[in-house]
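@channel anyone free to eyeball this complex?
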Amino acid sequence: MSSRHGGAARSDDPYFPQHGNGGYRVAHYDLELDYKPLPGRLDGRARITAVATQTLPSFTLDLEQFRVARVAVNGKPAKFSLRSGKLHVHPARAVHSGAEFVVDVRYVGTPRPVRSTWGDLGWEQLDEGALVASQPTGAPSWFPCNDHPSDKATYRIAVTTATPYTVVANGKLVSRRVGASATTWVYEHASPMPTYLATVQIGPYELVPFRSHGGSVPQRAAVPAGLMKRFRHDFADQPAMMETFEELFGPYPFGEYAVVIVDEDLDVPVEAHGLSIFGRNHVDGHRGSERLIAHELAHQWFGNCVTLGSWRDIWLNEGFAAYSEWLWSERSGGDSAGAHAARVRARLATLPQDLVLADPGAARMFDDRVYRRGALTVHALRVVLDDGPFFALLRDWVATYRDSVATTADFVALAERHAGRSLKSLFDAWLFAPKLPVLPQPGA
Ligand SMILES: [Zn+2]
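replying in thread with the prediction:
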């Protein structure tokens, strides 16, 4: 749909047609956020560098419930209005097709999570600090953006907040200016990321490096002091996991990896770009969440480095992350992936078979069957290809679509190249038909 002023207002994502905007691509977000935890007020400035893909007399950004004080385009004040989650911008002069332009938005308000089928998304105030978990559509709860996973951009995120708190955001901490009452933390993320993986975590965290080494990049954690002992025990194998995944999937795609343990229970941990967020319930002191630690780490390759081009391809994120749980199990002395697969297939066979993996529908994107059947699909492919070609395919997938977006069709094509033949019957059965197929047997 185009707005009546000729700016393309919507993306073409069938799952979330209200999110994402046509007519331009974002190259960089520069966010300056001043957050007062009590009362929870966010004073924000976003400078967005974008390139017009058509001439734009007007355009839109996704932004929820803030008061917008000022919008400028290329330094000149622009007319604007905010309604129904869209910031409509009318620059003084139309932006020409192909031109780079900078949108400068000043906004203020109390960020509130976006309500969704999956609970609250986006910026959430905590008793002490805040957390951000946006997947899939929570990003407009804290900054104006082109909220579609296919529009990846680089970020600079500067957060000023009360001095006792620690701030963690995506990427590398490039500066920290400590004041008596407020401290400014500046993070830069040089590899392109989608809006849903942008995050800010604010809380009374201690920043600690991992003691043991493993893998090619530094690993850090932000942990409340009271959870430190359990954290040290439960996450002790993460460096070994990193080493294993680098061997199987290729080099870790970003400059560093951080984990944040928030002092609240979370239903599930969530992945962000270059970091993952766990709840205090995920550090039980008995390694009860080890498979989830593997799952979130694997997302750095599957979902974050190679990002889905459309939300219907969610299995490309979750199927591979779920399969990585089994890979870690078999590589760390637990059950083999084959044993996990047989058990999970038997369990899935007792559940309704009414879900098409490659297009589950928006409401069922995060249905457990997407995860489990996704993992089974990856395992079926491994059995059919054999380990050599299978892991070569995974590494090629990450290398080919690194920092970019990809679709199910892209994956099928690459898999067939590695197989040297058509895999149509395999993928038709696992991805495009609801009936649960039988797992192929090794050597059959
Ligand atoms: Zn996941």
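from a first look: The first helix runs from residue 228 to 234.
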